[in-house]
Please model this.
Amino acid sequence: MSVTLETRDLTIRFGGHVAVNRVSCVFRPGELTAIVGPNGAGKTTYFNLISGQLRPTVGQVLLAGDDITRLSAPLRTRAGLGRAFQLTNLFPNLSVEENVRLAVQAAAGVHYDMLRPWMKRADLIARADAILEEVALASRRAVAATALSHGDQRKLEVALMMALEPKVFMFDEPTAGMSVDEVPVVLDLIARLKRDTSKIILLVEHKMDVVRSLADRIIVLHNGQLVADGEPAAVIASPIVQEAYLGIAPGKTAA
Amino acid sequence: MMLLSGDPPRGRVLSALLIVIVLALALTPFLFPGAKAMNVAAKICIFAALVASYDLLLGYTGTVSFAHTMFYGIGSYALAIALYGMGPTWSAVAVGLVVGLPVAAMLALGIGLFSLRVQAIFFAMITLAVASAFLVLASQLSWLTGGEDGRSFRLPELLRPGTVLLSKDTLGFEINGRTLTYYIVFAASGAMILALLRIVNSPFGRVLQAIRENPFRAEALGYRTVFHLTYANCISALVAACAGVLNALWLRYAGPDTSLSFSIMIDILLMVVIGGMGTIYGAILGATIFILAQNYLQALMGAASRAAGEIGLPLLPGLLHPDRWLLWLGLLFIASVYFFPTGIVGRLRAPAK
Model:
């Protein structure tokens, strides 16, 4: 049985503003879906609704057919939703190593063990070390997260999500603010994750070249609504995307 | 001290200081057999544990609680009321423990589940309100607590000063019930501090630090932070209540001023900050320095003032007059917070890293 992630009529209203408006979509394993749209289109809000930071006004989120709409963020993470945040969101005064170890520990389900010293958990330490190697942060392991360069912080952000070994990877602009030479490291990581065809990968991204090189599918959000969904080439070429990215309201040309 | 936790003090000066303090406390009955020295040493032991338990909350989870003296008081009163009501027997001691500790833990659980899921400031206010209510209750329910006078009681035979366990003839010094009581206090405090060190270095302890650093991210990693905070609150309350039991055991008395007042709460806060938050070891240093200053600064200043007077220095004798000791204590604290913002332990560890 394949594990799918689905949103049904997902809607959230902030006062009179409908930030995400009846978005229904199914995400399948082995598929990297890029979510694009202009600023304020509701991409990050859509992510927050899926990973549980926000509760929808209407609609449902289903993972592997189970309704997870009522689960809190931590329980959704345990169910298999991994999230890397747009604004770097780390444990600033803990070392890089400790940051990753916390994620590894969470993935191992070690929540309330208060009797054994951390240092005795060789399994968790080894796993954290492996992840540090994978994201090329091993040499910075003892540095406090806050002292890392912006690019390294982004990498650590991704490392925390990888450590969780989720079923669904949610990248929110992983390359935002990165210098040109740092971008490929993160893109390589995502490309490597893609090879595991049991994973669902969602990617919010502004850079069209990144989207074009990685995505199997693109969905377009505009004013909170899903306005296009399909093959990258077709979606990018569609008038609606051209117009959305030019800032012209859709609807007039949308048939 | 690196026992059981895998978190050594880190830093030679720090280790040396801790060894000196622990040795001095362990040998106090023989080195400084006077009543005052023993009182000071027992108070240091009890407060080191009490402050360490507060550090678990403030230093590791970043939660500010004003109810710590309440839990301390619950322990003190539980023992006092049991021994007062049932007479000086060991079963009364057991009843005090069996009633007092769960009451403290359950109260902490209730406060935690009720208020830890919302903002930290709300938790602080709730603890303040509950602690104030408890203080009023303790001084009003005179039939139970003895009101403002508190409760004096007698200890079981074995722990009384009159009970000579080893007479002076055998070893050259007397070991009596009081000495035994001191060692109970010393051992129990030590055990609690080691247990806390173990907890903060466990996987659970790491999550507490994560919550202090970024609760939002801790949740996104799958940690249900309310439960972690509530458990930490309960453990902290339990240790505080145990420290309260030891306090009553040593003083043979429990009253609002010695176990519940807010001035004790402020003392605890100062000791945590001076020692270094989020280190546990800081509690030992903070308690030692604070209580030594509280007890001996006045005498020291008296001597200094007289000496200055004899030499004929102007102004100094007045400034150093023993009545001004609180002023100097205050200045000492301001200086220590200014020069060691991360506490003494933070300062001593910094160059090593």
